[in-house]
Fold:
Amino acid sequence: MIPEPWAAIVNAVIYLLLAPVVGGLIAGIDRRITARMQGRVGPPLLQPFYDVGKLFEKENLVVTTTQNFYVLSYLVFMAVSGALFFSGGDMLLVIFAFTLSHIFLVLGAYAAFSPYSHVGAERELIQIIAYEPMIIITAAGMYMVTKSFYVSDIVQSAVPIVLYLPGVFIGYLIVLTIKLRKSPFDLSTSHHAHQELVKGVTTDFAGPNLAKIEIAHWYEYVFLLGVVYLFFGFNPLLAIAAIIIAYFLEILIDNTTSRVKWQMTLRSAWLVAGTLGIINLGVLYYLRMVIVP
Amino acid sequence: MQVSQLLIFLVLFPLIAAFFLLFARKSLERNWIVKLAALAIGAVSLWLLVAGFDKGMMMFGVSGKALDLAMLAIELVIAVYLLWLGLKHKKYSVVILVVIQAALLLWFELAFGHTLVELPNNLFVDQFSIIMAMIIGIIGSLICVYALGYMEIFHEHHKEIVDRQGMFFFILFVFLSAMFGLVFSNNLLWVLFFWEITTLCSFLLIGYSQTTEATNNAFLALAMNMLGGIAFVVALIYLATLDPSGRLLELSTLLKSGYAVAIVPAVLICFAGLTKAAQMPFSSWLVGAMVAPTPVSALLHSSTMVKAGVYIIVRFAPVLTGTTEGLMIALVGGFTFLLTSCMAISQSNAKKVLAYSTIANLGLIVACAGVGTYNLMWVAILLIIFHAIAKSLLFLCVGTVEHRIGSRDIEDMGGLIERMPKMAVMMFIGMAGMFLAPFGMIISKWAAIEAFIQAPFGLIFIIILAFGGSATLFFWSKWMGKIISVMRNQENVEKTVPQDKYTVLWILTALVVIVALIFPLISSVLIEPYIMDVYGYTTRLAEANIIIMLLMLGLLMIMPFSMLFESKTPRIAPPYMGGRTTEGGMKFHGSLGMSRDLVLSNYYLRTYFGEEKLFMVGVLACWGIILIALVMVVGVVL
Amino acid sequence: MSYLTKSPWILHYDASSCNGCDIEVLAALTPVYDVERFGIINTGNPKHADIFLVTGSVNEQNREILKNTYDQIPNPKVVIAVGICASSGGIFRECYNVMGGIDKVIPVDVWVPGCAARPESIIDGVVKALGILEEKRKAMKIPAGDTA
Ligand code: SF4
Structure:
């Protein structure tokens, strides 16, 4: 079922307004927990907001003015894909809009024509192709369980989706590490300081542009965790608990592993999608088509 | 004019133009003939659309017996010609194939010539044919116009190649005529005839430059296509054996005659389709065909001729629906899509990337048609349309860029946005059309996923799409990144591009966007009625989603204007290069006073996506599948 | 107070220090001092930085780099010279290849004395710099005519 237009629009607006707040808070909590894991006190909870506020106060320094366009498009389409998701839209459309927005980030980095940005962009692309199959398999899996690609249907389904899709869920968590730019898969850029690639894909973005990228990340966090919610849609409390645990796990992994090469990233992500994902769906398909025709 | 007259006009008129071109000595004459003919062909194609879009399937009788014989005679003449060429160039595999095919044809004529009755309806047209005709008539004639300017410069740049432009345009227009014939023919004998003509045109055009490489590749293409041609003839012989009166040779009758009768010819003809559409294991001919001048690659090897291969498979899709044979064909398409998408990652030659991407998309169409449910059929036709437009645009852009910068290597296209801004924008749009939401190809990919998931064994294809799709993303994005990277101190070399070429390119660019905008209309006017006729029910995307897509497209189009409304005036600074850069020149100062230019190169991931390795895998897998399908067919025959 | 003072990101550049001051700078990031408490991050990238923290003296090799890097920091920005070398050339002052302190090449806002400078004084210097940063921000706004 296609969601009611008004309810959908209201949800989309709520997402557009609240997601940056929630996303920023998540980032703040993340930084504090990370600091504690490293035996530090860490920044204030609202630090991410200060950072973004600061970046907007800075000068718009660019290598080429086209960067502004790419970054704005990245932010806008990230917001659009999240809004589509939270308004109950078609999962596949959401995924395509999501990809589109990332391509803009990559193009922005390419536009700068600098060694660090360039390698960052290539790595970002490798990350995209590493996680994409798994995300599509996730959508396909949800369809197989709920018979719908619409987020509104999937979330209302009383079926415990995660029990049908355990492999897909684990696979999703693994590619989530890539998406959240967490170690060991933070190839293209990460939230940590000094690294071999300066700041990778974001190296040549400064001031307001960097702020927009940061806000886009917040939108992205909320959307990605929203997908985790779908697996547990039958029980909202459980779903929230799952999100918290999943995110905590990501932080833990982030702080206990070191960055791997792109080869390893691509291989492990495709391997996960290719084994856990496919086997899970295959079994489900078999059960659905053969046992209960 | 009656619709039937329009059809005959479209088949014959290019032929007439072709003969004039053969004798046009001056380039001015040639210019006028090509432009006027292109205009006429385009206009009549549109007329056909207006006259025929709401009429459903229409069949026409054209007195056939004499024509049939004439066609046979021409085919035999061609066979003799090819035989001579094959012997001359010592291509004995081609010689053998030609002999086999000619023998089969002769035998067919001798054994069944007297029993065949005259078919009542040799020509037909329905919405699918109209779509194909639009592609041939509009995109095809645009490419011919483009070719005028291209060939002039081509010969300026390559003095060593004999200028045979008269011949070149002659073949181009003969080809257009054959393509029209192919999509309007209801008589399988005619389809075969036109099919062979397109093979011949392709062969001659690939070999145009007469270098050793070109000749070899031309013969490779010929051999592989002959293989398909032989399968086609065998299918005809089988049909004639079933019913010596030859009524089954009528495509429309055959398609309605049910699994038992139609499956064997369907598989054989689809095999021919696979060779023509350069599916694995036959993909190498299309890659080799890239030695031809770029308009040829655009016209024959991406937007029309190879589409004939998938056209025939889509025609037979209703027969294949739900059959194991259909699944096998779909698997060949699916594997081809996956592997060639990956192989494109490892290529830096722009035309090769386009070739692999073409093969991949044809593979996707074959996969859709092979599974053959009604909604997949819808996707297949949509793919044919979107792909033809975007890919021909890209080929022509690459051709133009190549003439300006003297290279077709993607690595040399860095900073094109500075050097040839208009061209870069057009390429950007063309590429967006190939892989970005909400443009054409992604609409199709989306619809394909939604359709495959409901189809039997669709899961396999979902997975193929998931992996192949992301590979597609990689090679397009990095190429896109290359052309939009803003390098310093680049000179604009665009002004020297002739105006004609621009007109063609802008029209194609506009078409990419327009078709993405109006595809719901195309779907409801042309595709859905056709699917309805064939299957009895039809499909479309949900209305809300279409609206969202259109909004996204609108958003995408207004985004560039954001650059006009900067709140803060940007300050330009050179990119960060560890502090070592000097302004402007982007040079690294090395030790001992050396200074080195900054060179950035894309990733090609050859260890993972290397051409040879994946090709071997594909050839083995696809031969395996094809053999299984053929064995199954033999099983049915026995 | 603006956001700028709550989130000063630092770019640390080692001009030609003996590494003594660098180690002290890095010490400020360790759990003992944990400057991230104040939102301070040590970025490796001028384009993301607000505070340019330089150790060591200027010589022929790094003069251009220092200048380039400084130019690539978006405004408003402040420069801190850490250690006596960065301030005046220090014990290397008389070397044939040393030009002197970094103020020979780029404008310096805060001088942090010491050989090596202590982490406490470095943090103190950063805090001083924040005040200057805030003033620069205000100064930047007026010519642009955005706000009064
Ligand atoms: S000031 Fe002292 S510790 Fe610092 S760099 Fe100079 S010599 Fe080394």
User: Anything to note?
Assistant: The longest strand of chain B covers residues 58-60. Residues C 17-18, 20-21, 55-56, 83-85, 90-91, 115-116 surround iron/sulfur cluster (CB under 6 Å). Residues 1-275 of chain B form one domain.
